[in-house]
Design goal:
The chain is an all-beta fold and 195 residues long. The chain has three domains: 61 residues, SH3 type barrels; 68 residues, OB fold (Dihydrolipoamide Acetyltransferase, E2P), CATH 2.40.50; 57 residues, OB fold (Dihydrolipoamide Acetyltransferase, E2P). A hairpin with a 4-residue loop joins strand 15 and strand 16. The longest helix has 4 residues.
């Protein structure tokens, strides 16, 4: 259990029996009253955002999220299929809402980490996935790149390329189709050409 003033940004707590990510917190004292912590929380299951004020007498449970390795199989329309790492028979879909734009950085056949809330349900643990984690840097192949135009530095010397996953990013002019580039998954920006 953590007390009201330990509920800080980026912590995951159990609020109304569901995991919530603390988006913001502000501990303050209003005039002569006791200190309170005004927070903004995002439900990791539904995605809804709520505001809640915790008083000095309040305490909450820190959410325990287990990490599990999963492999990306394929996408069809708005369904994205995965299986448990090392167990291809245990297939399950993850929704577009859960994955967000992270799906545009995952190659078919690659492994990623799933964050699971309430892992006690061993048989259907994948129904309790609340988030996925990507490595900070990923190497992806460039499939489409406009040709280099000599002297074209008006827009900072960059061009828009399409990667094998469908993600479009800005890269330096020397990057061409067939090159492998390293991107930062948090900013979705070009880092360097991979060796």
């Amino acid at each position: 259990m953590i007390s009201y003033n330990e509920i800080k940004e980026k912590k995951i707590i159990v609020f109304n029996n569901e995991p919530h990510l603390v988006l913001s917190s502000h501990v303050f004292r209003k005039q002569q009253r006791k200190a309170v912590n005004q927070t903004t929380l995002r439900n990791l299951i539904t995605g809804s955002v709520v505001e809640n004020t915790f008083g000095q007498s309040d305490s909450v449970e820190e959410a325990y999220l287990e990490s599990k390795e999963i492999d990306y199989i394929f996408s069809k329309k708005n369904e994205h299929w995965f299986h448990e790492h090392g167990n291809p028979k245990q297939r399950f879909p993850l929704s577009e809402e859960l994955l967000g734009d992270k799906i545009k950085m995952i190659k078919e056949g690659s492994s990623i980490t799933a964050r699971v809330f309430n892992p006690n349900d061993e048989k259907n643990w994948f129904e309790h996935i609340v988030d996925i984690e990507l490595p900070i840097k990923l190497d992806l192949k460039v499939v489409e790149a406009p040709p280099n135009v000599k002297g074209n530095t008006a827009d900072g010397g960059t061009k828009r390329v399409t990667l094998e996953t469908g993600l479009e990013i800005n890269t330096p002019l020397f990057i061409e189709a067939g090159d492998v580039v390293r991107i930062n998954t948090q900013t979705k920006e070009y880092v360097e050409r991979a060796k």
